[in-house]
Amino acid sequence: MLRKEYDAAVCGGGVAGVAAALASARRGMHTVLIEKTILPGGLATSGLVLVYLPLCDGKGHQMIHGISEELLNASNRYGPCEPNPEWKKNGRYMARFSPGSFVLALDELLENTGVDVWLDSHIIGCTVQNERLTEIEVANKSGTVRIGAKVFVDATGDADLCFLAGKPCRFSENSMVLWTIEHNEHSKSENDLDRCSHTAIHADPLEKVYTTEKLSGKMVTDFVLEGRRRYRDLLKREYAEGKSSRKSHYPLTLQTIPPIRKGRCIQGCFTLDTGMEGRSFEDPVGIFGDWRCPGKLWQIPYRSLLPEKLNGVIAAGRCISSIGDAWEATRVIPVAAMTGEVAGTAAAMSVARNGTPHDLPYSELANELRKTGFRLDFPR
Q1: How many distinct structural domains can be found in the chain?
Q2: 344 and which of 24, 141, 160, 161 could share a cystine (Cβ 3.0–4.6 Å)?
Q3: Distance (Å, rounded) from C-alpha 90 to C-alpha 79?
Q4: Which of 200, 233, 253 is the C-terminal boundary of a domain?
Q5: To 5 degrees, how large is the angle CA 326–CA 46–CA 187?
């Protein structure tokens, strides 16, 4: 069986995984990024969630910097949009983007940074020795490949490494939301992306909770098929009522990954929970403004990225240890990229020390993050 060795193995190529891989490789680590689809970006690209939510607090102050801001600016490198230059006075520091443009930009960033990218590769198993993850199994067209690493980053979105290693995870309910790039001659949107592409974005306006079932193969299948059934029904209703026709309103592209927002997350050394907005922690690794409420700020503790019972692994993105309203706040694109950079930085520093993220001194990590422009404390 083929075996490969790396300093850092980043599992999952969404924005969190890309940020983690860039942060690790830029610090000189031999880094691999493993992605189950053929497109980097995760829900932002394959999931068509083409809104890079705010990096600010909604009151004219930027909260998130670093690679997350770099990705925001890169998202339309080959597309028509950009952040509002007057966001401090009018609006928020965010942007819509072309998913295809974002894919091309992410490819370019990873290539220029020297990350070894494995696409169409599924993680199917983990090897744990003395409570430390030492190796994963990946299936692709080469067959089954074993990948060893000094540190692993779980950016799978669903805590797949912890789950496959048999460690405890948390689950949540999910709302039915379908993002579709479509041709709709009746769209009233006036933004640049719609004017240039003649498309509109459809999300189920009902936003009903569809399932509280734990993540499983059957749950994912049912969830995806139900979303597409609802979209079919919407089109049928419009056609029957004469609001549109199959020539004036039809889908161009559908999501190619499940639109599950909160499937599974790690059980961390600390869990961020509902009501913890505005709370200060002893080990902050980032601060961000809640995308839903201007002025509402959250701080993320480093311990929320560390699995409670699995060493040699650090989580990033929407599978960090957060539940309730905190999970809603942390699962989005800019925050996922921010925690991805933290995870990749911690992974690289741990490898350099011949240690793991769990025994990395927080003060050293905090100093390194501040050098890259991170805000760790609430503004005064």
Answers
A1: 2
A2: 24
A3: 23
A4: 253
A5: 90
